[in-house]
Amino acid sequence: MAKLFGFSIEDNEPLSPGVVSPVPQNNEDGTDHYLSSGFFGSYVDIEGVYRTEFDLIKRYREMALHPECDSAIEDIVNEAIVSDTNDTPVEVELSNLNASDGIKKKIRQEFKYILSLLDFDKKSHEIYRNWYVDGRLYYHKVIDLKNPHEGIQELRYIDPMKMRYVRQQKKDPKDKYRLSNINADNPMDFEFPQIEEYFIYNPKMTYPASNPSSLGGTAGIKMSKDSITYCTSGLVDRNKGSTLSYLHKAIKSLNQLRMIEDSLVIYRLSRAPERRIFYIDVGNLPKVKAEQYLRDVMMRYRNKLVYDANTGEIRDDKKFMAILEDFWLPRREGGRGTEISTLPGGQNLGEITDIEYFKKKLYRSLNVPPSRMDGEGGFNLGRSSEILRDEVKFSKFVARLRKRFSYMFHDMLRTQLILKNIITPQDWDIMEEHIQYDFLYDNHFAELKDAELLNERLNMVQIAEPYVGKYFSQDYLRRKILRQTDEEILEQDKIMKKEIEDGIIPDPNVPVDPMTGMPLDQTSQMDLGQPVMEPNLDAQGAATQVDGKIVEMPKGGEI
Length: 559
Known about the structure:
By secondary structure, this protein is α+β, with helices and mostly antiparallel strands. The protein has helices at about 55-65, 65-80, 100-120, 120-135, 250-270, 285-300, 355-365, 390-405, 405-420, 425-430, 445-465, 475-480, 485-500, 520-525, and strands at about 90-95, 135-145, 150-160, 165-170, 195-200, 220-225, 230, 235, 240-245, 275-285, 305, 315, 325-330, 340-345, 435-440, 545, 550. Helix content is about 35%, strand content about 15%. Strand 8 (about 235) and strand 9 (about 240-245) form a beta hairpin.
């Protein structure tokens, strides 16, 4: 195979020869099939939905232009990507990462650098919308091949209609000369397929449909897997081996809504006005004469005055045939003679129940609550028990979309950290599951739910506090009622100890004077003056020193 364009990051520690599997590696994104020979990328769909992914992406983009579909997409994108003037839409979360502070600081710096390359603060809405509509996202990671340690220099967006991901079985030229001498009793003797992965880029926006091994020249450019960031929706058509968009479920619903709207408009135009029916008596005239006489009467009484709004003139358009014409019917001799009657217009033209039904069906197919379809209702920030279940499902759906979309940051951050020698590929395999991405959240339901849960837990703690030491322990309250984890308990204990030492909060273990509200150990240290000593009355007539003078006490009797 010819050399691929771009760069590759390879693991220097391959798996042991004993670690084998007949199943090739895959990302569970619809490309788990691989090519051994022949053509690829085409599928004959009897229902006419699509033949190739090229046609599928075009259909998705046409759907996104429909007003109702566009409104639902905007609801999803606005919920997932929150634009704030002060905060960035997404930040890297490293609290669960077991690494030094220096490594975490470098990871945060490189993530901010990637966001600046994407201009994500300004273009986040468009990037997320393109990923949601197309169902896939491609970025070319441009680096300096002479100085790869400088990292990614530029990130260039690639139209999915120009790019194709290919997984192909590796072929060894020596295979055709090798004799098959395999012992069927030993599974280790089988030669399992080795898969090579690469991308085909075609700037002419023509979907590649020929054998990848024969592509070359103007047919497409082969690019290495590590040089491209490839993020999919996660939805897969397993029967056809293709990646789908979240709009795929709405194809039928949108087509039904379009048809019912068009039929409603046609019916109203044709049935709304009243029409006249002219019954013309033609006597015993032959058929040809009768038709000629009928046409003469039509042209004589026909009125086609039209008002031109552009020029303000009134003109006669008798030569044009309109769809709302009167009816002219001949009537033979012996009938009731010439008659003019009226055909009433259509009834119940204001009924749009079927339109509303298909609108709700479209919103449900896009996982958007139908309650968001009507903008008449106000926004209510009530208790979480008053929130509709559809909103709960929608918030979980948006969270799942964010999780899938963050793979784009994951791949870019991996490439940047490895190229700049901050970590090794082996380190990344250990660290990647602990690197999370925190999106700016604007769904008030989660905030309301957390506030209510905390309020209920604090009330329960207040009720159970008199029973601490009798039926419950402090540890039981913190673990079972406040639901604090071991890490949170250790962290809060450490913070409270530091605040007590700094004097920010009083020590709860020190008794407090009920009169002054001050701790007793501080009250005892206050200067209250010297106490006045009482004279010694045990010895009668004894001399006692008072105010520095010796005074002789008088004799007294016992009381």
